[in-house]
Amino acid sequence: MSGKILDAGCGPGIYTDFLIKKGFNVTSIDLSEGMLKEAKKRVPNGRFYKMSITNLKLKAKEFDGIFCSAVFLHLDDKEVCTSLKEFSRILRKEGLLFLSTKKGKKETVKVYPDGTKKFIHFYPKKKIEDFVKKAGFFVEESYINLKDPDGDIWICIFARKR
Prior knowledge:
- This protein is an alpha/beta fold.
- The protein has helices at 14-21, 33-42, 77-90, 125-134, and strands at residues 4-8, 25-30, 47-50, 63-69, 91-102, 107-111, 117-121, 137-147, 153-161.
- The strands form two sheets. It has a seven-stranded mixed sheet with strand order 3-2-1-4-5-9-8, with helices on both faces. It has a two-stranded antiparallel sheet with strand order 6-7.
- The chain is globular.
């Protein structure tokens, strides 16, 4: 396999590592210094940058694919729409987008054992699909995944840039 992939919101680099091992040319971004530090430990040969998905400092039509898992749940509607427009800008024609986010109709603040608080936004499936379409994508497949250990259900979307 080959192709240039953006791991948008790479976290600790688990998917970056997987994609590189599969032969992809991967660029990884995250806003968290802590996550980037962990990612660099996991994937010393990776390319990691501190960057927001709402303002990508990347060239237009630079990527063949974007992998964005568990990121939109930390954004509000406006930020999601802005991010999707940015994704469309940097993807080549027919480029593939994978995204996953939590399904539901609520917003909450999750408090972690270390006291860290994170905003969590749940999305109805149709709403997130509509955002993806509005940004210039064709939804090839969209499905509901099984519950995670917290009891949350995930939406997974595969979309192609028109």
